[in-house]
């Protein structure tokens, strides 16, 4: 499933594409919202792994503007519930993720990103 928690960890891995290859940009997406169980302890533990600018940029590409530009110092339950929604409940079902550097397209079908490369693209 392409959720923003997963997207925040994905970079282009085409041979020679080693700079400006993150975050992948969304294009022509179909988004579905799916509820998931709220776990504030998991979120607090995962926050240090998040690239905040990439997360907020991706969320905005998908039409969600609920996260602040900067990670707040106060991680209260209201903020964590908003973060939970953005990271775990927004699912990209169909579309494309595009490398901002080499413009390689990674297609998403039935919620699954195809990150496989052709032999000449493997580094």
Automatic annotation (TrEMBL):
Lineage: superkingdom: Eukaryota
A GO molecular-function annotation: protein heterodimerization activity
Gene Ontology BP annotations: rRNA (guanine-N7)-methylation; tRNA methylation
InterPro entries for the chain: Trm112, Trm112-like
Subunit structure comment from the entry: Interacts with TRM9.
PANTHER family according to UniProt: MULTIFUNCTIONAL METHYLTRANSFERASE SUBUNIT TRM112-LIKE PROTEIN, UPF0315 PROTEIN-RELATED
Family to which this protein belongs: Belongs to the TRM112 family.
The protein, known as: Trm112p-domain-containing protein
């Amino acid at each position: 499933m392409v959720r923003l928690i997963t997207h925040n960890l994905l970079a282009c891995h085409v041979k020679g594409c080693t700079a400006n290859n993150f975050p992948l940009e969304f294009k022509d997406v179909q988004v579905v919202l799916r509820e998931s169980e709220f776990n504030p302890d998991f979120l607090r533990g995962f926050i240090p792994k998040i690239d905040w600018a990439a997360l907020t940029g991706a969320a905005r590409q998908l039409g969600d503007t609920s996260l602040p530009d900067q990670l707040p110092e106060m991680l209260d339950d209201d903020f964590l519930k908003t973060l939970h929604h953005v990271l775990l409940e927004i699912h990209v079902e169909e579309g494309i993720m595009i490398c901002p550097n080499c413009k390689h397209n990674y297609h998403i079908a039935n919620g699954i990103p195809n990150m496989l490369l052709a032999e000449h693209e493997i580094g």
